[in-house]
Amino acid sequence: MNTESSKSIGATEPQKQMISNNPSIPESNFRYQLNEVENHKIYIKTDHEGIQKLFYYLSTNEPLNIQLSEGNMDSYQTHIIGGQEYYPLILGYEEAKIMREKGLFIDIGDPIKNFFSKNTVVVGILRKTGGVLDMAHFIPLSKGELN
Question: How many CB atoms lie within 10 A of CB 147?
């Protein structure tokens, strides 16, 4: 893994050194690698239940090579539903399961009103990675734009 030109979500520089110096942890365990990740793109927000949620700021015109188990990257754009603006939301595999169990959405294309103070529409679910991305929310909103 080239740590100068890429970052892995969830691994700090010391953790990356430990991983790269530990032959028992194969590099192939990292299923997705997001290139040129900047600190302000990854952030955590706390929901109304006090649970921390992982977010990744992804603008609607930014290419991202990820595989979805449901949905289509072409839908990752702002939607107008009932005259209101809805932001696209891609969920990690496990986070989608949790949100479905809570009844927040059922299918791709379902809107979610007042999601951290914004209206969103679920446009995709990542394939299971077995890593931190399974709990992530990809959204074109920065930390300061969500409450």
Answer: 8
